[in-house]
Predict the structure of DUF4091 domain-containing protein.
Amino acid sequence: MVKIQQYGLALLSLSVAWPAFAAGPAVWGEGMMVKVRPDATVPGSSTEVRLTAARDEFASFQVALHGGEAGLRGVRARLPALEGPGMLTGPDVTLYREAYLTTRQASVPGQAVGRWPDGLVPDTDEVARETRNAFPFDVPVNEARAIWVDVHVPRDAPPGEYTGTVTVEADGGFQRQVTARLTVVDAVMPGTSSLSTAFLLSPVQVCRAHMGRDNCSSSELQSLLTRYQQMALEHRLTLPSIFLRAPWPPEWSDFDATWGPYLDGTSPTRLSGARMTSLEYEGPLIAEDLRDFTEHLRQRGWLGQGFIQIGDEPPHGSTFEQVHAAGELVRQVAPGLRTMLTTNSLQLKNNGLEPLVDVVVPLVNHLDGTEPGFVGDQGATYTGFLSRPGTELWMYQSCMSHGCPPGSSMPENQPGSGWPSYLVDRSAAKARAMEWLTFLHGGKGELYYETAGMLPTAWTDQHHFNGNGDGTLFYPGTPSVIGGLTDVPVASLRLKLIRQGMQDYEWLKAVSDAGDPDFARTVARELMPTAWRVPDDGAAFDAARLRLIQRYQELTEGNPLAPRMGATPGLVEAPSQGGQVASGTNAAVGGCGAGPGGSAAVAGGLLWAAWLLGGAPRSRGRLSARKP
């Protein structure tokens, strides 16, 4: 087995960028956990970034630019491939120009107002594979800009060291290069997330943003909605609300032809076998329609993904009487269809709802909070509910993380601390934190009330529920804005950070499944002592992730009985030998002999990287507002 040298250890986010005070333009490598703001970024000088990823995992970094006293015009960038034991190229390498959203009021007091990086305009888009207008662009005098780079490691990529060069050019013969060094570890991340998700999407907002009207038909929206679903799946998320509410019921033959591949895991995604983890019933509360929906899902093998929300944050969005009526109807006419309710353990028990609910979804603020009745870890209060077979605990965040009414705020949001947040003008770490907390609390899924709430105005205004970006995670990629011929969704920087949190969850789960759940919990708890003390230090998240990868390597190296990440339950993945899979196992091709390096060598490098980094009045949420 070839040893991986220490300098080759990959790190998801950073090589240290030392300040450069030259007046000329600057280009440097930057990690994914830094938001490069035009007026608040000091030029750096690092010419290298280091990354780590499993197979079927995404690794991301940035190439930052500063105009200095001269500025740059006609900036272009390219990264043809990363080469090593294999080659990562084509659809597995995507460059984006970071677009800026101008905020006019801060989501949290004391936060800067102005331009924040968020929309990611692709060079070649991920869905239609068309050239877009990411390049060229200009960097004004004394301002900064950034390029985002996604690298997907295919499932069959041999582990080892890969290197690629991002070449940045501009008018006047300007050229700079940033080297990306990627260590692919001998592990396979599951293409379908182990953490279920239900990130809702309003078809009417997609209609408004792309068609300019409210009355799109199913046939008009179908191709657009599948593109949004593909984009979500490649970010390890599911958009479960894909029906138009009228007419109902849907024509099942058409539904199966369109959505069957996304529910079965055969759709054209870069993540191997990625499938939807949830599907929401959105029809009327009528016995015949509920039976029809449930029976069709049962016949197709999708019933485990189906669910119905029987209420919304009672007594606010729904009354308790309405929740009881809906839950009892579903139990009577659609047994097997999971019922979901956004509430907490107190309301669940005090109103006799436990027998009617399968998936309880409390606010993160109510699972580990600061308010009377919810102070501290409330996990033990769900033990009785979770003792019933088939029940699950999910989590969600809302404007309760920053303050819902105009002008309100959450006092826990202090510098370097505060709640998880999917807002544009919060730190990158805040958007990566939710999945760590879900793991800590034993959650099996995450709900988010909307992903396209302000899609029609996303490029210019996303202020909603007292926060910038609340309920909007996509941008409308219309040809008039991003070029090309086909309308596609455009990812936000926050969507990339949520994906990173989902991938962190896989490492937490992998270490736990491989035999050391206490270590996984300790790493997560040291990172976030409470749910409202999420650090803004992105390097701390990267260091924690590296500790998990190192521990996973220690637990699985030379131990054929240790469960492998992504392995089919009940099967044990044997170590790969010479790039081949041992007969009778479900391992992917690749191993120590597949190229330079292997898991044991990676562990030594991980120790080095971890050492290097170590130096380094409130209102409720509002699911009821999710669909106009």
In short: The chain has 15 helices and 25 strands. The chain has two domains: 26-187, 196-451+493-556. The longest helix spans residues 493-513. Confidence is low (pLDDT under 50) at residues 1-18, 570-628.
